[in-house]
Structure formats: structure tokens, C-alpha cells
């Protein structure tokens, strides 16, 4: 889950930097592959949501991109900060974001 993903980022920040900061612009082939995989991952996330997404088919790729973009931005800024926030807080923030996007009820932890 999110905890394992964030642990992998924190355990190998060099790889994370390549994935988030350096991969785009390497070549057209690498960029196309990266963007295609991210689009597929976004579609997987919205398809696997516990609450069905009531999204028009023409908007699904945009919503999927927004989900991936939200996750990526949080992880990029966490990485760039030198992991200033505790990993558990980042996981909680992402979980709240994903639940809210899926239309669930969001209750912030105390």
C-alpha cells in the first residue's frame, strides 16, 4: 500500500529523484513510456476505488491524471524537503486525498 510505496521512496532517494525529476526529457521514447504507464496507473486507481467514479468517459483520463499528479506532487515535495514530514503523515495525507477523490467520507486523524 501507500506505506510500502513511501518506504521505497525513502529507502532509495536517488531512484526517486530519477523517477520524479530526471526521467522526463531524457528521450521521446522514455517520456512516452513514462506518461503511458502513469496514465494506466491512474486508470487503475480510479477503477479500483471502493466508491464508483461517476465520471463521463471523456473525463476519465483527466481525472486519472489529476489523481496521479496529486500523488506525485506530494511525493516530490516530500523528497525535495529531505523527508521533513514523518512518512506516516505523508501516508495519511495521501490516504485522505484518495478517499476524498473517490467520494468517500474524510475524517482527519486526531
Short description:
With about 110 residues, the protein is an all-alpha fold.
Characterization of this structure:
The protein has helices at residues 2-11, 13-22, 28-47, 60-80, 87-101. It has 110 residues and is mainly alpha-helical. α1 packs across α5 (87-101), α3 (28-47) crosses α4 (60-80) and α4 (60-80) packs antiparallel against α5 (87-101). It is flat and about 40 Å long.
Q: State Rg.
A: 15 Å
Structural class: mainly alpha
Low-confidence stretches: none
Helix content: 55-70%
- Note the beta-strand portion: under 5%
Mean pLDDT: 86
Please count the helical segments.
5
Q: Whole-Å distance between the termini? A: 22 Å
What key phrases describe this protein's structure?
mainly alpha; 5 helices; flat
List the helices and strands and how they pair.
Layout: H1 2-11, H2 13-22, H3 28-47, H4 60-80, H5 87-101
Helix pairs in contact: 1-5, 3-4, 4-5
